[in-house]
Design brief:
The chain has 187 residues and is an alpha/beta fold. Helix content is 35%, strand content 22%. The protein has a six-stranded parallel sheet with strand order 3-2-1-4-5-8. Helix 3 packs parallel to helix 4. It is globular and about 45 Å long.
Length: 187
């Protein structure tokens, strides 16, 4: 089996109820991400947490140093697990993520987190462009309602459209249950 790592993207307090930018389904997505984290920890496979902060204090969410920018307790990192701080949508851009993965000899990344239509999408595409095999655990990701040219798009449709696009040519898409069943068979 190829050396794998779990990348948990931006499951931060501002995306949860009471935060500045609440996502639809984020609590269920985080619960599934927590299940993945447990399996990776048990297997002693690397877990990388990605945390986004905007560069200025007038940001709409993820304000530097704020409680909202902290990783949610449900998926908090252990002290030995790296937290990659990013200021861009793509988790690889201007960060140490690729260096960490390459240092561990990672060939396959398993991706979960938020937002499906932004940072999960960008990270998945970049990972594949860098030569990693990618799996996105779709029910461990969350999105939000969007609008375009007067058309309101429900979060479930946003999420489905982006997952469909990633599944077409970039990544294997699995539910948490399916991934955990596959991981158990491969172990």
């Amino acid at each position: 089996m190829a050396k794998r790592a779990l990348i948990v993207i931006d499951l931060q307090n501002d995306y949860f109820p009471g935060g500045k930018w609440t996502l639809n389904g984020v609590e269920a997505a985080a619960a599934n991400a927590a299940r993945l984290i447990t399996v990776f920890r048990t297997a002693k496979d690397p877990v990388v947490h990605v945390r986004h902060e905007f560069a200025t204090a007038d940001a709409p969410f993820f304000v530097p140093g704020s409680k909202g920018a902290e990783i949610h307790p449900l998926v908090a990192n252990w002290p030995e697990e790296p937290v990659v701080l990013k200021h861009q949508i793509n988790s690889f851009r201007d960060t140490e993520l690729k260096r960490l993965l390459d240092g561990w000899g990672v060939e396959e990344v398993v991706i979960c987190g938020a937002m499906s239509h932004m940072c999960v999408d960008a990270c998945t595409r970049a990972a594949v462009d860098f030569g990693y095999k990618a799996t996105v655990v779709h029910d461990a990701c969350a999105s939000r309602d969007l609008s375009f040219c007067g058309v309101d798009v429900p979060a479930s449709h946003v999420h489905a459209a982006f997952m469909a696009a990633l599944g077409f040519a970039y990544a294997t898409l699995l539910s948490t249950d399916d991934y955990l069943g596959t991981a158990a068979v491969a172990a």
